[in-house]
Design a protein that fits this description.
homodimer; alpha+beta; Arc Repressor Mutant, subunit A; 2 domains; DNA-binding
Chain lengths: 259, 259
DNA sequence: CTTGACATCGCACAGATGTTCGTGTACCAT
DNA sequence: ATGGTACACGAACATCTGTGCGATGTCAAG
């Protein structure tokens, strides 16, 4: 199931859940979802939520208030665009089929009486290990399985050279992308972002190939060139139109585990 | 406010919230907290929750179900013991004032109808970053010594391939030992041990040279051969009598921070 | 046109959940 | 004793919130 195949409503729902949870540290209720996605009926929200759950994008705890969570590995694997870092997400990114549905206000995901929790100067932060990434297959996780909440790494912010937000980690599997920098079994820490600069190592989703790989990024006019770090000539750069490549995140750290 | 100054109940509450949220991806309700911390009255839970909120350890969204979240930065700053994650937390760590309060079952943080995803027991542990290692200057540190508690990395045991004891980390400084595996700025995690096996990457103190470097170890009769990973011919293996080389530890992981 | 799957709506209802309030106990200073 | 404070209990109360169900609209296949 591809993220872009979802109905606009469902995409908006997922976006909202992600944003709301990020801001409030607890999931939204069905009615809150409905309000912000402009669905008047709670049952419709439930209907779509069930759909999303059957696709594996979210998990639900029946009969529990706010008992839902997004399945990030599955989302990433499906080409979920992860743009909305901290800011109200852009409707434009949601697919532009001029829907007959009404547009939403959707500027704030938190209610007035609960401003986003201000977590100032957090020196330490956790990086969840969301799953595996392997050449030839998308970010591989059991789509139904929520990521292991215990699998995370905790670092001090000063250790990295980027803001310590929107970080996640993946375990590299397989030899196919072995190169000087990333080996089988390594853990790569990425920062969610949909753009990157030339020379950055990124996890990129290649449309058509339907796979996510780690490559160095370089722009070439309308194209992007994805360069494997491995100098071995059998690993050739991949050149694709920019709109066929979706960047999932930028690699900010590689953790190598020696045997 | 120090974490250890909290009443045992409040410590238990925080711990439960942390664990529950980690497992379920949504916060517990007041009654769920009460059940697992053995507080029969919801109002008592609310009372303590308000206290915790006034201390800044958690945030609450009034009138919203499960509208609470923990403030990790504040918790960590107050000395919250993080490493008991994953397993039912040890009462011993909670302060041993033999409370008159009843003891709790507290073996499960999840409700029966929402079993936790079964994970391989991954204990967590901290790795202190003891200092820098640079060619020319020895690492004048000793794992037993005190270290800045801010400077540490927390990992799950399963992440490494060695027992998670006697670990420490060093930040690599300088280019002198640049090679394919370890670059300037990297952090290496070592296990303190006096011996190592052939092929291990070790931090070795070379008597006479009066310096500590990272090299691959190989024995040669009475000698040891310290092989730089860098294939560049200018980096030649160092061969010394075994008694002139002192192994400080074995490298078990390398953390590379990209710019 | 009929049919049925799909998506939606509105609404009632039950259960889940936070809050309030009266009460009790222990401790401590006055 | 007296009063105050901190903490705890339980029950009643008011919402919040998920679910169920019938009705409606759309659209493509038969």
């Amino acid at each position: 199931m591809n993220f872009s195949d979802l109905s606009e409503r469902q995409q908006r729902i997922i976006h909202f859940i992600v944003e709301f949870t990020r801001r409030n540290h607890y999931p939204p209720s069905i009615r809150e979802i409905g309000d912000h996605v402009c669905i008047s009926s709670t049952s419709v929200v439930k209907y779509n939520l069930s759909k999303l759950e059957s696709y594996g994008f979210i998990s639900r705890a029946p009969d529990k208030s706010r008992g839902l969570s997004v399945n990030f590995p599955a989302l990433l694997a499906s080409g979920y665009p992860l743009q909305q870092n901290g800011e109200p997400f852009q409707e434009a990114t949601l697919g532009k089929k001029t829907s007959t549905t009404q547009r939403a206000p959707e500027l704030e995901y938190y209610t007035a009486d609960e401003p986003p929790v201000e977590r100032a100067s957090s020196r330490r932060f956790r990086v969840p290990i969301l799953g595996k990434i392997a050449a030839g297959s998308p970010i591989a996780v059991n789509p139904r399985e929520a990521y292991d909440p215990e699998d995370w790494i905790e670092l001090a912010e000063g250790l990295l050279n980027v803001p310590a937000d929107n970080l996640f980690a993946l375990r590299v599997q397989g030899d196919s992308m072995i190169d000087a920098s990333v080996l089988d079994g390594d853990i790569v820490i990425l920062r969610h972002q949909e753009t990157a600069e030339d020379g950055d190592m990124v996890a990129a989703w290649i449309e058509g190939d339907e796979e996510t790989t780690l490559k160095f990024l370089q722009r070439e006019g309308p194209n992007v060139r994805l360069i494997p770090a491995n100098p071995n000539p059998e690993y050739q750069p991949i050149v694709r139109p920019a709109d066929k490549v979706r960047i999932n995140g930028k690699v900010v750290s590689v953790i190598r585990v020696l045997k």
